[in-house]
Amino acid sequence: MATPHVLLLSLLCTLLVSWGDAACAEVDSDTEAVAGRGFKLGCISCKRRSEVDSTSTVEWFFRPKGEVEFVHIYTYNEYGQNIEDDQFLDRVDWNGSKTSNDIQDASIYLLNVTFNDSGTYRCLFNRRLLYGRYEYDTNVIKLVHLTVVAKATRGTASIVSEVMMYVSIIGLQVWLLIEMIYCYRKIAAAGEEALREAAKNQTQNLPPKC
Ligand SMILES: *[C@@H]1O[C@H](CO)[C@@H](O)[C@H](O)[C@H]1NC(C)=O
Ligand SMILES: *[C@@H]1O[C@H](CO)[C@@H](O)[C@H](O)[C@H]1NC(C)=O
Ligand SMILES: *[C@@H]1O[C@H](CO)[C@@H](O)[C@H](O)[C@H]1NC(C)=O
């Protein structure tokens, strides 16, 4: 009877295949950068059908906080990268897909973030899908709203929940220890009592459950 094995194997295969498809995940970018440090502006656009070949170019735009217009700051295409705006000169590095023109990850890395980098970033994929002799152009746009802070902040809620976690873990252990000591004493006392009773009455008492 090989049936269970076959079933298990096909289940495993299904899992592996779906896992392979999920290799590209559209994770949202972080949105809080620390002044003076580097920051990765994330932008991922997975292809709907991974088996179709495509070539992509990527452009990034920036709208400073309080402004209305986006300015073109960065291009990545088959010739490599180009920084288009003086504010970002020598401060941007490609952090996206490296091995092919079939870009799904268009993330860039900002060096030495300043407060002037606060604002909205727009990442634009120009993707050309190649179906044999046919070509089909698509665009994908993603936005990142970046806040620059002097120091990394943590939400109060996360601090409170971490403290509560430690308190409850320690509290539980102490309670467990007290309970164990109490129980041990009770059993020991009951045992002695039972022995004395047994010696007197010649009857056997079981120690009570704790
Ligand atoms: C992104 O680029 C920066 C600067 O070149 C580098 O330090 C960092 O390791 C890169 N990160 C990834 C995930 O490629
Ligand atoms: C970034 O900061 C480091 C250390 O403060 C400095 O050495 C480097 O020259 C800076 N890079 C740019 C592009 O400003
Ligand atoms: C930020 O912008 C202001 C106004 O445009 C400018 O005076 C200042 O030098 C900039 N600061 C940095 C660190 O680029």
UniProtKB/TrEMBL annotation:
Q: Which residues form the Ig-like domain?
A: 4-123
| Family named by the database record | Belongs to the sodium channel auxiliary subunit SCN1B (TC 8.A.17) family. Belongs to the sodium channel auxiliary subunit SCN3B (TC 8.A.17) family.
Q: How does it sit in the membrane?
A: Single-pass type I membrane protein
**What molecular functions are annotated in GO for this chain?**
sodium channel activity; sodium channel inhibitor activity; transmembrane transporter binding
Pfam families reported in the protein's UniProt record: V-set
Keyword RNA-binding among UniProt keywords: no
Superkingdom of the source?
Eukaryota
Q: What is this protein called?
A: Sodium channel regulatory subunit beta-1
**Any GO CC annotation of this UniProt entry:** axon
Record key words, sorted: Cell membrane, Cell projection, Disulfide bond, Glycoprotein, Immunoglobulin domain, Ion channel, Ion transport, Membrane, Signal, Sodium, Sodium channel, Sodium transport, Transmembrane, Transmembrane helix, Transport, Voltage-gated channel
